[in-house]
Fold this sequence. Notes:
Elements: H1 3-12, E1 36-40, E2 43-46, E3 51-54, H2 69-80, H3 90-102, E4 108-112, H4 115-130, E5 134-139, H5 170-173, E6 176-180, H6 184-194, E7 198-203, H7 219-230, E8 233-237, H8 249-254, E9 260-264, E10 274-278, H9 280-283, H10 302-314, H11 317-340, E11 345-350, E12 353-358, H12 366-369, H13 374-386, E13 389-390, E14 399-400, H14 407-423
Parallel strand pairs: 3-13, 5-6, 5-7, 7-8, 8-9
Antiparallel strand pairs: 1-2, 2-3, 4-10, 9-10, 11-12, 12-14
Helix pairs in contact: 2-10, 3-10, 6-7, 11-14, 13-14
Residues 114-116, 119, 142-144, 204, 209, 237, 239-240, 264, 274 line the site of pyridoxal-5'-phosphate (PLP).
Amino acid sequence: MTLSTKLYDEAVGLFPGGVNSPVRAWRNVGGTPLFLVRGRGATVTDADGKTYCDLIGSWGAAIAGHAHPRVVQAVQQAAAAGLGFGAPTTGEIELGRAIREAMPAIERLRMVTSGTEAVMSAVRVARAFTKRPTILKFAGCYHGHSDGMLVRAGSGPMTFALPDSAGVPESVTMHTVVADYNAADQVRAYVAAKASELAAVIVEPVAANMGVVPPQPGFLMALREATRACGALLIFDEVITGFRLGRGGAQGRFAIEPDLTCLGKIIGGGLPVGAFGGRADVMEQLAPVGPVYQAGTLAGNPVTMAAGRATLALLDAAAYAHLETLGARMAAGLETILARHRVAGCVQRVGSMLTLFLGIERAATLTDVERLDRAWFRAFFFGMLERGFYLPPSPFEAMFLSLAHGEEHVDEFLSAAEDVLRRTPHGAGG
Length: 430
Ligand SMILES: *Cc1c(COP(=O)(O)O)cnc(C)c1O
């Protein structure tokens, strides 16, 4: 019995499922999760002393690699000056300024403590500003776990969405409608019929919570045009893509200006964080200026601000060039392996985040993604784990590269992946 297994047994008596966030429980692959005790650069070490090359990277937040010395130093200095006051601090201005410089569409912003909160608050502001109730989201896009966002309604045409979770009344989700990702025609049809009810369209500009699904050419622009034409707001949920796909996030990469942007993950440098911002006239709906209430005891926490600021300071053009090179090398390597061993699958990548989908040839929507071969992924996951690679424990997630990864990590990853896929070319019972 490993130490991780023992710890898990104890955790199960403390936390539902032994975890404080569901995907950590490895339900999608079976088995019990590793307990991690240390991370450094591109690697993490578990309770049993085994070290792995980490492709989760705190779900994208750890873009600098684990325990980057500059980030750690910034955190130590900030902590020594006081862990938080519930009063304005200069760190908020420094991080806020860095974000606004990178994303000019963010004229005003507010710091919060999670991505969930950022989205929940952005939605509230959008409804107040437009005085309309409905939010349109896309199947397979994750926007945190606030009640109104916990719907996906499978795929298919516009219907009032049913809750994905128990405990969410239909009277809440009746104000959420769901369209297929990449289906601009569905959005246009909705707007043509119900524009006067639509407060906002919210989208992951590159979907990364159903595996990586890039927007097809014209999709994001169609959302921009459809919302602008009917007086609804466009919200980009860049909690993952912000500062991941370049300093300007997806909005910079695709040159589209949303009305509101949600951020999280990277901007906290590994500490709990969220932020939302956008047009000044929309954001000034917020208290204490406007009528929309929103608050946070620990929002703008000085230690978090320092970690975020130190992380953003590392993300220059050379950093993004490195991430792009690594991502391209990994995707090309995987594609070669798929072809060489006649493995049915595809690699979808944008920048330094990518997903290997086994059993499908491409994925543009959640319906496509759901056809992937789960049993095969399970075999791949455990094969890679055995060879020292710590992958997201679900086929519906992205792998994330960091500044601490180098070509050597990618090449080792590729030879391990080839070895695993060669042995299980058609899945392990799926
Ligand atoms: C992670 C994530 C969230 C939720 O952020 P939390 O900090 O986990 O609440 C929201 N939207 C997207 C796109 C995310 O990836």
